[in-house]
Amino acid sequence: MEFIIAENSENKAKAGNAGAVEAAVVAMCRQAGSVGLQQAACRMLCHITTDIADNRAKAGNAGAVEAVVAAMQGHIDHTELQRMACLSLDCMTTDNAENRAKAGNAGAVEAAVVVMRRRAGSVGLQQAACRTLCHITTDIADNRAKAGNAGAVEAVVAAMQGHIDHTELQRMACLSLDCMTTDNAENRAKAGNAGAVEAAVVVMRRHAGSVGLQQATCFLLANMTTDAENNAKAGNAGAVKAVVAAMQGHIDYIELQYKACLSLVHMITDNADNRAKAGNAGAVEAVVAAMRTHREDADLQHAACFLLANMSTDNADGRAKAGNAGAVEAVVLAMRTHRADAQLQEAACHALSRMINGHADNRVKAGNAGAVEAVVAIVQEHIDHTNLQWLACVVLGRMSTDNADNRAKAGNAGAVEAVMEVMRTHREDPNLQHAACRALRYLTGGNAKNVIQAGNAGAVDAVVAALRRHSETAVLQVACVLYVT
Description:
Layout: H1 2-5, H2 9-18, H3 20-30, H4 35-49, H5 53-62, H6 64-74, H7 79-93, H8 97-106, H9 108-118, H10 123-136, H11 141-150, H12 152-162, H13 167-181, H14 185-194, H15 196-206, H16 211-224, H17 228-237, H18 239-249, H19 254-268, H20 272-281, H21 283-293, H22 298-312, H23 316-325, H24 327-337, H25 342-356, H26 360-369, H27 371-381, H28 386-400, H29 404-413, H30 415-425, H31 430-444, H32 448-457, H33 459-469, H34 474-484
Helix pairs in contact: 3-4, 3-6, 4-7, 6-7, 6-8, 6-9, 7-10, 9-10, 9-12, 10-13, 12-13, 12-14, 12-15, 13-16, 15-16, 15-18, 16-19, 18-19, 18-20, 18-21, 19-22, 21-22, 21-24, 22-25, 24-25, 24-26, 24-27, 25-28, 27-28, 27-30, 28-31, 30-31, 31-34, 33-34
């Protein structure tokens, strides 16, 4: 049967329709003590359910998942049977949440951990078990919890540490850890304590040329470093430099670049030491290169903008590097390219506000790149997005600070009227009113034309109304008074 259906989708479908799946399960249940039959049946189930969703459903309904787990539990010392059982579970649970749940309930997670510990020296078995754990824990929170309780996290990290030169095993180990730690803080802590971060960095250095492995480690680090303790471990282990190196070495791979940006965002957030390491490793330059190379990918542009915002926060050196690397221009281009994407626009405004804050040269670059016009356009297009409007007002205010040319561009682009529309639309939001008043102050300072535009647009009345409506908000009161005086 195996030779007939292997690599032949039509024959796999015919076998499924003829009852091959159900027949295999009957044989497994009836001849539970036969190692050879159990192994052959696992191999056949693996082939027949590969890329055939209907056969996977039949396998679940026929009890194949439970039969394979029983084979694992009953023949613990047979390495090849265990490997084929893991692979058949991998095939049956791919894109099938019901089978994943059945596998978890049957004890597949615990069985996989047992064989990983018992056969630590078998690369093929370790790799197959990692694949199984990856699929079984995907989108099944209960299975992730079982994996944590059974010691799966530690077993997978041990496999990484014990088989450093095996690229595909390392890739599957990283992916399985990524799945097990998703939305599970306890498993992330266990992974960190077991040395997962350090193991990931080691394999990134050892296998720098493997795109798949570099991508998998970036996935894992992006997930692991959402916790502060793992962040510190990542910095100490050299993860920041390793991720930047992956970006520099594999510029054409969008998903790798995206996950690398996310992992860097997590590693540098609220961690000044990691931010400095990222800057020294060339993170700013790497993210700008990624933005230029993949300008149409909104997810990457979004993550890149967040990274640039974090790199520039309370970091004068980061702001200077961003300006020199072309980050200001890259962010403005992202704003123009993805004008309808409110979340991306928010991240872009965040990045601009940080890069131009206290940096006159970056304000000039932003003005020359068309940032003023881009910000006005998104104010007009996304008027109902409160946080985006707040950030846009902050950017307009900072762009106009000590920069007459930007104030003139803002006036010509309709910034004064746009800010007035924000004030009218969001009257009850004191933070947004405050940002708008500050923006009006800087837009009209030293620019007679903008002063006239503000007056014609009803700025004085709007500011006075904000002053009255939000009498308990001190910073808004100050901003209003400064504007009207």
